[in-house]
Amino acid sequence: xxxxxxxxxxxxxxxxxxxxxxxxxxxxxxxxxxxxxxxxxxxxxxxxxxxxxxxxxxxxxxxxxxxxxxxxxxxxxxxxxxxxxxxxxxxxxxxxxxxxxxxxxxxxxxxxxxxxxxxxxxxxxxxxxxxxxxxxxxxxxxxxxxxxxxxxxxxxxxxxxxxxxxxxxxxxxxxxxxxxxxxxxxxxxxxxxxxxxxxxxxxxxxxxxxxxxxxxxxxxxxxxxxxxxxxxxxxxxxxxxxxxxxxxxxxxxxxxxxxxxxxxxxxxxxxxxxxx
Length: 276
Known about the structure:
The chain is mainly β and 276 residues long. It is built from five helices and 20 strands.
């Protein structure tokens, strides 16, 4: 279309082309890491996986979206053989601007930690935790799945293993750290068990090993029998290393994720803590 333009008495023809508006790019999430089915998911792909609705504690609102647990399970984490090895799986969710949150798969599982985490697609792709917005991630771009394969250490003391070093904490030190006492109840199979546990917090143990505990720290406790389970310090539950159970001292500490439904993440005979 030509429009006349008058500049100091001179008529100039200006061509104005009609350019269609560019469509906004479609947000996608890349699932990668220790999975058999790594791929990109669009918002519509996530919706096709199924939608779940969760109440927001303390309000009358609800959140609807794709369960992060469902997405990870659909991607088929590659786990080692053994009992409950899915409890060694961790998930790191990263947003467009670098913000990230880390979860243990067992934390998200309704049979264990029962913390829902939902990928909503109303405005882009966002991670929302009903009742725990500290770990919400906006504009999600990546879901990285990792599996801890640490084997039990030998020798006295508790070994705290990081990607850079290993520190051994003697039993006497654990016994003398500031302790708290909790009464816990969980299911062993279908049978409820209740115990009184006493010991230092997991975060304090890491501090004494020279590890700065953050909400993104994923810690796998490995027992002397090779059984292991992961927790993250961002979980909204007390995490203890019990040294005394029901009034009796323990030869090795026990991981206590207070509030778990089942006892799968209660790791006894802990000889190694693997931190990542």
